[in-house]
């Protein structure tokens, strides 16, 4: 059985990288000052954050049903099934839309609702690819990925409260107070939504909070304190040097464990702005170890 694995661009996988990895990526649309752009097609990360800094009006959107179905139908011309892994259903309505659209494909399209985004969503796509190569059906892949949906965590700290305020994630009063006190909030994604986790006064303290939370998850939630059976990941928004330094710290804490680093998807970046850092972990599937 030939299966096409598709993620949306919230996974952080670029079109060129997708070709190298043997998967497919559906680009997510953005509205910037009333004009539609597609992540990784006609909108780079550098251009996105430059427009953001200029004060452009930026909103996110889910892909149109037409765009989604056109990609599926093109892939089904030479594949038996499509496994589609959209961003978390708690962060966008695009997953629910895809689930409804898939009902017309008589099982040939399996939509995975495993509540991942960014580097953890990327890993789900790679796991799906590897399971397909081992002969798993689309239905089996969907069932496995959804059964392990909570086997990942992301912790994010932001450099400014400006964009959380702009997106309505916090009140103007809270943003003003936080800016005055130089608060660096730490947010978390553990399935479903982006939630508040802790508050820090400095970026250094925020990093410590994130790394402590990561260590706690590895020991308590994943029962893997040395990360021997867990993928470790770093992500950022326009913070390559800081991300590199954080990556080195993680490597020192978990010697010999590979650490993957990449920019956060623009759907997250839209709400948190440039200068953000994130650490993440995803449990390896036993079937692939």
From TrEMBL:
Keywords assigned by UniProt, alphabetized: Lipid-binding
MF-aspect GO terms: lipid binding
Keyword RNA-binding: no
Any Pfam family the entry gives: DegV
InterPro entries: DegV (IPR003797), DegV_C (IPR043168), DegV_domain_contain (IPR050270)
Domain of life: Bacteria
PROSITE patterns, alphabetized: DEGV
Matching SUPFAM superfamilies: DAK1/DegV-like
Name of this protein: DegV family EDD domain-containing protein
